Amino acid sequence: MRKKRDPRIYTRLTHPLVRDSRDEPFRQAGWDEALSRAAAGLRAARGAFGLFSCARATNEMNYVAQKFARVVMGTNNVDSCNRTCHAPSVAGLSAAFGSGGGTSSYAEVEETDLVVMWGSNARFAHPIFFQHVLKGIRNGARMYAVDPRRTSTAEWAEGWLGLNVGTDIPMAHAIGREIIHAGLANHAFVRRATSGFEQYERLVEPWTLSLAEKVTGVPASAIRELAHAYARAERAQLCWTLGITEHHNGTDNVRALINLSLLTGHVGRHGSGLQPLRGQNNVQGGGDMGAIPNRLPGFQDILDPDARTKFESAWDTVIEPHYGLNLTEMFEAMEEGTLKAVYCIGENPAQSEADSEQAVRRLRALDFLVVQDIFLTRTAELADVVLPATAGWAETEGTTTNSERRVQRVRAAVTPPGEAREDIDILRDLAARLGHEWRYADSEAVWNELRSLSPDHYGMTYARLEEEQGIQWPCPDPARLEPTYLHGRLWADDPAMRGRRAPFGLVRHDPPVDLTDETYPIRLTTGRRLDSYNTGVQSGGFASPLRRGEYVELCPEDAESYGVVVGEEVRVSSRRGSVLAPVWVDTALRPGLAFMTMHFPDDVDTNRLTIEANCPIAGTAEFKASAIRIDKLPVATVRS
Questions:
Q1: Neighbour-count burial of 334, counting CB atoms closer than 10 A to its CB (0-12 exposed, 13-18 middle, 19+ buried)
Q2: Residue 401 three-state SS
Q3: What are the pLDDT digits (tens) for 576-620?
Q4: What are residue 45's phi and psi, to 5 degrees?
Q5: 278 secondary structure, DSSP code
């Protein structure tokens, strides 16, 4: 019998930690020593530095963090876990509309006629959003689910299209072709508001329903049904998550879905829009605050000289007139030896990056690593200096921004333990040691500085955010609220008011990089479970009646073929590494498809299997499509 493993419990950081050499253990230090050591290490790495910001911390923290990178360290090398999940959504939406946010509000999902959940098990991964979907269904909306697995979300759908992993573009192109051939395209909107339709029409022409069936594995009749339902709906919401973005061509996948909205006019209207569902409380806000390598706060392009001049004047600095390295590129620079120091705030890339063994090796190669967090994560264990911070959801004041672009206040409810300090205070004191005196009385002072520089946020004072219980950006006027949806300009009669046309994305099918073959015959896809969160550092310490630990999930046919049963431990191997994991049998899976999560890396490190095949536009890795094999162990053991 396999001994049941208890989850690792991460204890709260309460005091700064330093180590005198990489070969020695941490010792407790005072704040003055820890900050002085951090400052000295970062000062020595100026010109070879990167900052990882935190999608769980406040907007104010992210604003100050990216300012630290650009002003104190003189670099645009700043990014966050947005790169790991929804960077393709931002890139795709920006290319089409000039803005990287979802186009609709949650309330509109309750009032729409059709919801398409594409690559998203929202019932588990986004349970709050899914409550809005259920209200929409109760109000008469129809729902379709496009997903390789028959997920818990798909159980609520009128139709489930179980496509093969990595065939989203053929599916989207076939839907687009069918809409055109059935005479259901909104040609008035296409002529008024888009560009590139003729090229798009030629691009999708080969993707007949029969060819799409062969490539995607979805019956032609089901593809046709979804095409007609989406095009005929008066209002429709197209929603996606990491099943679309975590591919080597994630941005192309997003563009393929946006094309369908342009073809039918399902964007820029109340109830019709595009919803990339964000998994963490402030992954949208981190990007909005400029904690990304190519945009200043308010999503202002670093290459725009007017934008740079505005920030340079406010910050009394010179901003590098080029894009910085994104998270993926920073890890590659570690390998090359050109990135020598990292300041990591609230992220755990040692366990969240694809090909985790490689990620750890690269982090170890750094000359200097500072980690600022609430727990001693596996990443923090590699650091030279560890700084204990506050929990952004309960111990600090500020704001966050959710998937619908809604900025909301968060408030300190409890006192942080021990000597843990506010993230902003830590950044401010570290900046002072490096020659920059920033005088922020509180988080509101930071927010007001952001408002003065970001037109999209200018109308959002703290008082107004409290009064309105949150406000969606853009909000440029303190006396007015904008519509809940974006890009209504595309429907304006006056061409001048319509502005820039939204271009169709001319993207082509590109299968997964990690091909299945006789040696690695199983396609592994990854995702989330309802009871757990990311790498489990926070959620693993709390009991859940739903939690059973990590398993490799197989369909009944594959389990029978391998001669394995539920609870039996097997070896799961990819071209990068292997792990031991017990088996779970799930009828939601089809033959040749396995499923695992990243929630229990201390027990089963799934990311030892995943591949660092990155989207060339967004830098996101292909977590959703690894090739694996299952090996039965010589002496089968069953988990008790």
A1: buried
A2: strand
A3: 999 999 999 999 999 999 999 988 777 898 989 999 899 999 989
A4: -105, 10
A5: P
